[in-house]
């Protein structure tokens, strides 16, 4: 048994279905929660775990109106929590729990990708029901080989959670790898990754 999006016991609906429903209800926006040090300062908050948590919960409060969520999902940038160590991860855990309680989908922007037991550990952290860091979906990086992601993708599917696989990213440096093969019969690396993830 898992917990449904509304907190009841029973099988969780697939992530794609829950995302489509959230977009229909709240609109297509996904709120990035990226507590950069400069942004915390702009908000008059300290670059500490307490400032990080205040920023995060304020962002969530803005995303949830009196009639319910105003966005389909929130996407916290995991690295900006990790830089504060265990206290930062605890703030992220509380944000994920508060979003769950508010009925807002969560996408952990962790960009994880590794091999074997290491990737299994990432999957356990981000998609296993027992983990306090479990999100509705997680971002994954395929650049150690798409096959390294397959067990995590299967586990996410079985748990009713989702994955977003990086294929063509916005950073200029991504061209060095992602555009290789462009114009060939096989297509670019990015195109092949997108096809494998589909």
Written account of the structure:
It is a single chain. This protein is of the alpha/beta class and 198 residues long. It has one domain: Aldolase class I (TIM Barrel, Alpha-Beta Barrel). It is built from nine helices and nine strands. The protein has helices at 15-26, 37-42, 49-63, 79-82, 85-102, 116-127, 150-159, 175-178, 189-197; strands at residues 2-3, 9-10, 30-33, 64-65, 68-69, 73-76, 105-112, 137-140, 162-165. The strands form three sheets. A five-stranded parallel beta sheet has the order 3-6-7-8-9. A two-stranded antiparallel ribbon has the order 1-2. The longest helix is centred in the middle third of the chain and has 18 residues, at 85-102. The radius of gyration is 17 Å and the shape is globular. It starts with a strand and ends with a helix.
Summarize the structure.
The strands form three sheets. This protein has a five-stranded parallel β-sheet. A two-stranded antiparallel ribbon has the order 1-2. A hairpin with a 2-residue loop joins β4 (64-65) and β5 (68-69). The chain has helices at residues 15-26, 37-42, 49-63, 79-82, 85-102, 116-127, 150-159, 175-178, 189-197, and strands spanning 2-3, 9-10, 30-33, 64-65, 68-69, 73-76, 105-112, 137-140, 162-165.
């Amino acid at each position: 048994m898992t917990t449904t999006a509304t907190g009841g016991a029973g099988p969780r609906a697939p992530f794609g279905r829950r995302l489509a429903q959230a977009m229909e209800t709240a609109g297509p926006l996904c709120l990035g929660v990226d507590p950069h040090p400069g942004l915390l300062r702009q908000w008059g908050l300290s670059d500490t775990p307490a400032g990080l948590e205040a920023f995060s919960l304020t962002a969530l409060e803005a995303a949830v109106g009196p009639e319910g969520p105003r966005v389909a999902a929130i996407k916290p940038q995991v690295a900006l929590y990790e830089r504060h160590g265990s206290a930062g991860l605890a703030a992220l855990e509380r944000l994920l729990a508060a979003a769950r309680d508010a009925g807002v989908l969560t996408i952990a922007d962790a960009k994880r990708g590794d091999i074997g037991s290491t990737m299994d550990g990432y999957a356990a952290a981000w998609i296993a029901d027992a983990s306090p860091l479990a999100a509705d979906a997680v971002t994954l990086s395929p650049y150690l080989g798409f096959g390294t992601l397959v067990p995590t993708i299967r586990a996410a599917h079985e748990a009713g959670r989702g994955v977003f696989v990086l294929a063509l990213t916005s950073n200029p440096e991504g061209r060095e790898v992602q555009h290789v093969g462009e114009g060939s019969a096989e297509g670019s690396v990015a195109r092949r990754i997108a096809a494998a993830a589909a």
